[in-house]
Amino acid sequence: MGARNILVINCGSSSIKFALVNEQRDGFVIQGLAERIGLNDAEARLRWQCNGDKHARALPQADHKQALAAILPLAVEAAGGALHGIGHRVVHGGERFAQSTRITSETLDAIRAMAPLAPLHNPANLQGIEAALALFADLPQVAVFDTAFHQTLPEHAYRYALPEALYRDHGVRRYGFHGTSHQYVSVRAAQISGLAVDNSAWLTAHLGNGCSTCAIVNGQSQDTSMGLTPLEGVVMGTRSGDVDPGLAAHLARALGWSLDKIDAMLNRESGLLGLSGLSNDMRSLEQARADGHAGATLAIEVFCYRLAKSLAALSCALPQLDGLIFTGGIGENSALIRAKTVAHLRLLNLQLDEAANLACTGGAEGEIQRAPSARVLVVPTNEERQIALDTLALLEP
Ligand code: AMP
């Protein structure tokens, strides 16, 4: 059989991201984004890139099914007529899914049942799956969960110190997210370093608009910074990360804020944006800091200190440290953030080589530590490839 092609779909409430992965080719054969869909929006459109050429097409008033119906022929054509399966990103797999799984009616019911844990994401993911099933009934389809990689956390890492019934009856526990990214970069880091995945120990920092850290031992997640929801943990673009659990009650009592207002503030108005009063985008903040903006300077200091603190805390889960891995838009590009974070981690025997750190940007992969420090690596993430690899592993031989 020739090299197989997998279409990877990441379906949000008003967008669908897609990429076609060929198992023997680096990069994507075709990739694109349908935006403003499912909103009865005249401006809905599809943009894609194939062989370096950029294309766009209007999809007025398109819903998810219509957008997928436009995407499929493009993917089939780019695959030379041979599409072997579809991999769907699903945010929450709860305790039910410790691995990726072939999609059946049972799988769909389970994902639906998980919706209270991810009310914004799982219903949107389901819409994409249902539309894809209706359109491509004969193709094998696989669900790949953001949470599944973290199902190896030991109980002392995933339980909150809350009444047991909340866990038992309502699933209140730490789940973790960004699993495909943490898994992909840690496997790649082991390859780069000449180590066996099943005999290696890593700290990973996925730093994009959402940010999380993870401790990975012998290929298994042992602890991670995100919890029941993707709000827990380190500072993010617009999300606060950890705050005092008493904050919500305080704001309700002292200021009369509603739960919805508190939730929106913590998820959409906090993080880098809230601290800086300027932007959630790290590029803009670095520029503003260089121009002397006090808010941007503070946001960057808090971001790096909290990130280092999270990594140091996760080191409790490691028998040894083979390396710290930076990934995501910030981790892959910002020498400043990497330098400031590692400067807080001297006790982990981490030090950067300044020139190597500065040189590692724009999708480059490499080691950036100064000998004899423990390894520090920059590894571009590739969640689409990980989803395609999981999908390929579940196809009939
Ligand atoms: P992602 O969600 O992985 O696409 O990452 C988005 C974040 O990466 C945003 O905060 C961007 O500002 C940040 N980012 C992208 N390129 C750079 C860069 N060259 N320097 C600093 N931050 C960057």
Descriptive key words:
6-stranded mixed sheet; Nucleotidyltransferase, domain 5; 14 strands; 2 domains; 8-stranded mixed sheet; binds adenosine monophosphate
Helix and strand arrangement:
Elements: E1 5-11, E2 15-22, E3 30-35, E4 45-50, E5 53-58, H1 64-78, E6 85-90, E7 101-102, H2 105-113, H3 122-135, E8 141-145, H4 155-158, H5 164-170, H6 179-193, E9 201-207, E10 211-217, E11 220-224, H7 247-255, H8 259-268, H9 271-276, H10 282-290, H11 294-314, E12 323-327, H12 328-333, H13 335-343, H14 354-359, E13 366-367, E14 375-378, H15 383-393
Parallel strand pairs: 1-6, 6-8, 9-12, 12-14
Antiparallel strand pairs: 1-2, 2-3, 3-4, 4-5, 7-8, 9-10, 10-11, 13-14
CATH class descriptor of the largest domain: Alpha Beta
Bound molecules: adenosine monophosphate
Q: Could you give the distance between the termini?
A: 10 Å
Gross morphology is: globular
Percentage of residues in helical conformation? 25-40%
From the alpha carbons, calculate the radius of gyration and give it in angstroms: 21 Å
Uncertain stretches of 5 or more adjacent residues: none
Short description:
Helix content is about 40%, strand content about 20%.
Report on this model:
It is a single chain. The chain has 397 residues and is of the alpha/beta class. It has 2 domains: 141 residues, 2-Layer Sandwich (Nucleotidyltransferase, domain 5); 184 residues, Nucleotidyltransferase, domain 5 (2-Layer Sandwich), CATH 3.30.420.40. It has 15 helices and 14 strands. The strands form 2 sheets. An 8-stranded mixed sheet has the order 5-4-3-2-1-6-8-7, sandwiched between helices. A 6-stranded mixed sheet has the order 11-10-9-12-14-13, with helices on both faces. Helix 1 crosses helix 3, helix 10 packs across helix 11 and helix 11 crosses helix 13. The mean pLDDT is 96. The structure holds adenosine monophosphate.
